[in-house]
Structure formats: C-alpha cells, structure tokens
Amino acid sequence: MNTKKPLVYILGILVLGIWGLVLYQIFLSGGDSVDMDAIVQNDRPADKTVLPKLYPDTFKLLPEYPDPFTGERSKLPDTIKRLTARQRIAAIPVTPFPDPVKEMKYLGFVADSRGAHRVAIISCQGQDRMLKEGDTINKVKVKKIGKDAVMVSYMGKNRLLKTE
Which residues contact 136 (CB under 8 A, 6 or more apart)? Predict the structure, then answer.
C-alpha cells in the first residue's frame, strides 16, 4: 500500500499541471489576440450607395398575345356587354338534409346477466356502434332499447327502428 501513495501524489501534480496549461492557453495567452479597436474604427468614410432611380410602372398587359404553339392571336370575349346587361339569377334549389334515421339499422342488443342494462348495436353509415339509452349519434338520441326495436328521437320526433 505504501508504494501507491507516491504514485497518487505524482498523478495529482501532473493533472494540476495540465489544467494549468489549459487555463493559461485560454485566458492568459496574449500573442494571438486581435485588436478590436482597429476593427471598430475605420479611417475611411463610409461609401454612399447609389440607389437606382425608381420609375413608375410602365408595363402594359397585352391580352391578345399569340398562342405559343399555333402562333394565332387569341380573341377575348366582350365582357363589357355582360356587365351592363341585367340578368336574373335563378334561385338555387335547397336540398333537404338526409334523414339520418333512415340510414340506421338496428342489429340487436347486449344485456348484462340480470337484463337491467342494455346496449343497442346500431349500424350507421356502414359502422356498427354500441349505444346505451341516452346516447346520441348524428343528432339521433336513443330513448329506449327493446328486444325487437329501438325508440329513437330525431328533431323532437320519436321514431322506431326495428330489427331486420
């Protein structure tokens, strides 16, 4: 054990010496420093940049340009006549919203062992969903779940979905 103590002291001194050299190179070396005052102070006056003279836009659109493939000049339709003539705009027919109840199918129900809680299996837009009483899908609310039918409410009207 006595032979290891001097080795530890020598390695400690060596580590301190290396760290001293590193810190000397970082903080105290002055030979490679750049004079920042010489960079900041510029003896020559700043050159004035000559800006180009700005002219108003003088371009002109040529709507009757030739077709790049055929070389023929295009003829523009006379839009002025359309703007001055008054035309009655036909009313767009309003299509009623599709009835979501017609898209639904009652597939059956699942109940617990006592039969107290039922969950209806309803197919809506190609997806089978499990809904309990009081759940809503596409603004259609499930009111009551029976063995052969489900009572649903849509826009305040009660409807009956029967099994198929």
Answer: 142
Decide if 144 contacts 135 (C-beta within 8 A). no
For residues 161 and 164, what is the distance between their CA atoms, to the nearest angstrom? 9
CA distance 46 to 51: 15
Count of residues in the chain: 164
Residues 150, 139: contact at Cβ < 8 Å?
no
pTM > 0.85: yes or no: no
Averaged pLDDT in 10-residue chunks for the chain of 164 residues = 79 94 81 56 62 74 73 67 57 79 88 82 88 90 90 90 82
CB atoms within 10 A of CB 132: 13
Cα four-point dihedral sign 26, 29, 35, 37 = positive
